[in-house]
Design brief:
By secondary structure, the chain is an alpha+beta fold. About 35% of the residues lie in helices and about 25% in strands. A four-stranded antiparallel beta sheet has the order 2-9-5-7. The longest helix has 25 residues.
Length: about 180
């Protein structure tokens, strides 16, 4: 029997801001996860499309590991705020944009393949829209992060649903790739 448990986002994840960079660092160096990569992908791509010249210390501080959730921290509209992309593998030497936030798991209560779909669901989007601050731009900050709570199914059900949805997503990606001439 499935049951739902209420969690605060801060019980499941630790939030961190992304790296601040200069234009001269872009286009060479190490893998880099940009705002657009997060916004356009529910799952981080196997190979990040951008590069950034970063220090070893930066690559440790702003690392991307399995289970991390990257989300857009600012936008011109509420609909584009807190769009997420989940890392389903480790990204050695990669860093992420200062226009994003990283949620690093601190609990085993959320299954990454399930969270891929949960964070993009209408349910979660409504929670974010109700909590977000809109002045000239929509903003997702630590106060909002600490105030968000939601219900999740038990872990065994997350695993079943997450693995099922991920298998469908992989088949769709494989079929779309096979259709390109």
């Amino acid at each position: 029997m499935t049951y739902l448990k209420t969690y605060k986002l801060s019980e499941l994840y630790q939030i961190s801001s992304g790296i601040s960079t200069k234009a001269c660092q872009a286009g060479h160096g190490y893998p880099f996860c940009s705002f657009s990569t997060v916004f356009n992908n529910r799952i981080l791509p196997d190979v990040l499309p951008d590069l950034m010249d970063t220090s070893e210390n930066d690559r440790l501080k702003y690392s991307i590991k399995y289970g991390d959730v990257l989300l857009t921290r600012t936008s011109e509209t509420l609909d584009e705020l807190a769009m997420t992309s989940v890392a389903l593998s480790d990204y050695p030497n990669a860093t992420y944009s200062g226009f994003t936030k990283r949620l690093r798991p601190i609990s085993d209560s959320a299954y990454p393949k399930f969270m891929v779909h949960f964070f993009r669901s209408d349910y979660f989007r409504k929670i974010v829209n109700n909590k977000a601050i809109m002045t000239l731009r929509a903003s997702f900050n630590e106060n909002i992060f600490n105030d968000i709570s939601f219900e999740l199914p038990q872990l065994s059900d997350q695993i079943k649903a997450g693995d099922f949805l991920y298998s469908i997503e992989k088949k769709i990606r494989n079929n779309c790739t096979a259709m390109i001439f």
